[in-house]
Specification:
Elements: E1 3-6, H1 13-25, E2 30-33, E3 42-46, H2 53-62, E4 66-72, E5 85-89, H3 104-107, E6 122-126, H4 130-136, H5 142-154, E7 160-163, E8 176-177, H6 182-185, E9 189-194, H7 199-206, E10 210-212, H8 218-221, H9 234-244, E11 248-249, H10 254-267
Parallel strand pairs: 1-2, 1-3, 3-4, 6-7, 6-9, 7-8, 9-10
Antiparallel strand pairs: 4-5, 5-11
Length: about 270
């Protein structure tokens, strides 16, 4: 197997650093390019939703190739020197590949499960960013408007609060906007509603139920509905997070990341 790795000076610095680490640690032949050629079985890139790289991502999958895509981590993503990056295989998110895994990798994260859930607390609608809207062919606030309307119909006596992805993103008209960090926004919530946001992982750690349509958290919450969301036990949350920890790596772990990803590519 050969791997084509796409990196260029405009790649987000942390994404470029992860790709450079993967290039240096590669146990298989790699072709490093700025423009997609499609002559390798495996394609690796940063940001599958990027407007230039997404067509290449789609073309490679359509031609029967495999794709590893990197993005900012599910947790520890803001740490300067030991930041984490998440990855996925053949899709925007890795929920189809979640399986029981050894616990040590999660334990090494030193993250404790929380319990900030309140049964009658607010419902938090999490907004999408411009990149996701472009990748999915949606207009700004298109998904959020539908989700907020459904949340109000399902929970007429609860506050429905909207949290934009970024402070500069548009606010959903007619809804209270949450500007606090996600850790504070989750306190006392009864439900998080998102399409595929990493906030679903924050909510899982914090103990708040989630309704999501896509994303890694769909492996745990995907069978629920907005009216009857999945409410996993602490043990179920922990088992999921133990598995998800294997889809998150630091550049210093590039060799181990290669080993895990190639094993999953070979055996599923």
């Amino acid at each position: 197997m050969r791997c084509e790795i796409l990196t260029d000076p405009e790649t987000f610095p942390r994404g470029r650093r992860m790709l450079e680490a993967m290039i240096a640690a590669a146990p298989i032949p790699v072709q490093v390019r700025q423009q997609y050629q499609g002559d390798c079985e495996l394609l690796m890139l940063y940001g599958s939703g990027h407007p230039v790289r997404r067509p290449w991502w789609r073309k490679h999958l359509a031609n029967g190739g495999r794709v590893v895509a990197w993005d900012l981590g599910y947790w520890h993503r803001r740490i300067d020197n030991t930041f984490h990056m998440r990855c996925t295989l053949d899709a925007d998110h890795p929920q189809a590949f979640i399986r029981a895994e050894l616990a040590q990798r999660w334990h090494d994260q030193a993250i404790e499960l929380g319990d900030v859930f309140k049964p009658e607390g607010h419902v938090l609608i999490v907004g999408m960013g411009p990149k996701s809207n472009r990748a999915l062919g949606m207009r700004a606030l298109e998904w959020e408007t539908r989700a907020a309307k459904a949340a109000r119909a399902a929970y007429p006596y609860r506050r429905v609060i909207f949290k934009p992805k970024r402070p500069t993103d548009p606010v959903l008209p007619g809804f209270l906007a949450e500007r606090n960090p996600i850790e504070k926004a989750l306190r006392g919530a009864s439900l998080v509603v998102c399409r595929h946001s990493n906030v679903a992982i924050d909510a899982c750690i914090a103990g708040v139920p989630v309704y999501c349509e896509d994303g890694a958290a769909a492996a745990l919450y995907g069978a629920g509905s907005m009216v009857k969301p999945i409410q996993p036990t602490p043990e179920q949350r922990l088992a999921f997070l133990r598995s998800l920890a294997w889809w998150q790596w630091r550049p210093e772990e590039a060799g181990k990341a290669w080993g895990y990803l190639l094993e999953r590519i070979k055996h599923g």
